[in-house]
Amino acid sequence: MSAGSASGAKRDGGHLLVQLFIVWNLFALTVWVAHPGPGPLSAIVNGYMLFTGLCQNFSVFSPDVNTASADIVADVKLSDGSIVTWRYPQNSDASLWEKPFKERYREFSTAMLAPANRSILKNAAIKIAREVQAKNPAKQPVEVTLKVVWREVSLPGADQPAKSGTNEFYRAEISFE
To answer: What's the pTM value of the predicted model, to 2 decimals?
Structure first.
């Protein structure tokens, strides 16, 4: 066997792997979008889509794209009456290596703001309270107020300044008993 035919075989094997990878991803995207219902196939595909982050809703391509940027903050009231401000992790604060892993934070914060997901807010408030308590063990969190800090994205050439504001969207009393 000559050296040329050996490298050709390697190249053909590499092409086959790339083709299989592309076919698998197209198949997984099709199953993900079609939602055939619960079953072993959807369980495998759903796990893959969640692990790889390919489970996007692709709203960026829709006619109604977001025109505002939103950040989540929480005011955590402690047992002594003091208030600690907790900031939701930002992908912009991450290094280039960390960014892909922290992208889920942004997706979760978007999900927190959706009215259909109000049921997750109590658990999010408890998690925030526990994070704050870990940094201040002597003081018990008694209340968490979730807020969204938003600002409109200015369109190119816009003459008026972009609007911004802060809105409270959830408040919970916290008890770890």
So the answer is: 0.63
Higher pLDDT, 132 or 8: 132
- In angstroms, how far apart are the furthest CA atoms of the chain? 80
Angle between helices 40-52 and 3-34 (to 10 degrees): 110
Query: String of b and e for 82-111 (b: at least 16 CB within 10 Å)?
Result: eebebebeebeeeeeeeeeeeeeebeebee
Question: Whose CA is closest to 132, among 86, 79, 67?
Answer: 86
Domain boundaries, the chain: 3-52, 64-173
Higher pLDDT, 75 or 114: 75
More confident residue, 6 or 48: 48
pLDDT in tens, 3-32: 555 555 556 778 899 999 999 999 988 888
